[in-house]
Specification:
Rossmann fold, Transcription Regulator spoIIAA, alpha/beta, six-stranded parallel beta sheet, binds iron/sulfur cluster
Length: about 475
Amino acid sequence: MSSVYIKTYGCQMNERDSEQVARDLVAHGYTIASHEKEADVILLNTCSVREMAESKAIGKMGFLKKDRRAKPQLVLGYLGCMAQRLGGTLAEKTPHVDLIVGTQKFHRVADYVTEAIKRREELLRAQEEDEFKALALSARPPLVDVGIEEGSQNTIRDHLLVEKKSTEFISIMQGCNMHCTFCIVPTTRGPERSRPINEIVQEAKQLVEHGVKEVTLLGQIVNLYGRHEMPKVDGKSPFVQLLEALHAVHGLERIRFTSPHPMGFRKDLVECIGRLPKVMEHVHLPLQSGSDRILKAMHRPYTVAAYRKLVHDLRSARPEIAITTDIIVGFPGETEEDYLASRRLAEELQFDGAFIFRYSPRGNTPAATMENQLPEEIKEIRNKDLLDVVNTSASKKLEACVGTLQEVLCEGPSRNDPTRLAGRTRTNKIVIFEGGQRFHREIFEVRITRATSSTLYGDPAITIS
Ligand code: SF4
């Protein structure tokens, strides 16, 4: 049976979608290749959030055309957000592609791969036997499915589970109704649709049976989970109800979620974070701008004062909580004063980490056609300057861990140095330490001995028997 390599661009939701596709392919008898050179089918699971991510995927597909010269049976496909956004027009840029499958059709990928392999074999046979037939077959458009499918949010639910992992993602919802003016996601992922609580709990239980100790709940606006499908109960939002249901799963030790929207962060959720010990002390809370004027232009329905209060409330509810964020610099019309407001807020709130993005216009988004688009040089200067600010606070937070005991879940060998192990603290900081097989997938304390700008190093304080 053919082997398939999936290259994933973009966010954790894409990683999770790729895992689901891989699992379906294995169920259909395919094997998953660990390197593209070994594969008979290469699928690029694409990202549309930034122009750069799309260019990378299209460039990669261009390179893969050369690989097909040496391996004519090679099947090539696009999946995910860019496939959804551009559909069949991707074949104009890369006519050698065999399939293009959008974000609501991941569960159909295995069938399309089977069909694409058949089509390729048919073409190769015709090239040996019948020149005219071969010409006709090679002119066929690729298989394209970027349709909308009701219930597609319920299809991302299976896991590969070949490799023993301590932590897994669970996709709890798809889509977004917020329509931030810079963002393409509502176009690529569609409107908000959530999975039922009982199915998510069932998925978590199955993961725990396979030794998973931590789950990260994924959604574009994860804390607005279920708002269209489920009522509040005793003043608790569906997301809080879900956290409580997962908290009760025996053997599940840690719960994370990403990314919430400040707007949906109400009292019940702050209180729940303070109350449930399995919910980890880390919130990634996208700020986007420290200027009310720019937040309004971004269609982010909160003010700087409300964001600041939310950070204070979270820190009061769970004093040790780590807060990370996303900030965009160079949004259309951002003045020096607007930028300095973001800078001042970042200095004041002392984030544990932040992704700083230079604004990049995306087609079919309102911000792309706004006046006062900023030159790249200004974006670059602000990007570097703000990075310095957030890196300074992030380093301070790491430095403050030196000498403390931190509870760590071991995830396996470190990516950069496989002779050592890596894990994460409750506050989502990476810790590298020495240790053997017996530490894998265990939770234990590590004494932190030093910190670099991004990583902690330590010694396990307790011997695992
Ligand atoms: S909340 Fe805004 S930035 Fe986040 S996915 Fe929705 S539209 Fe995009």
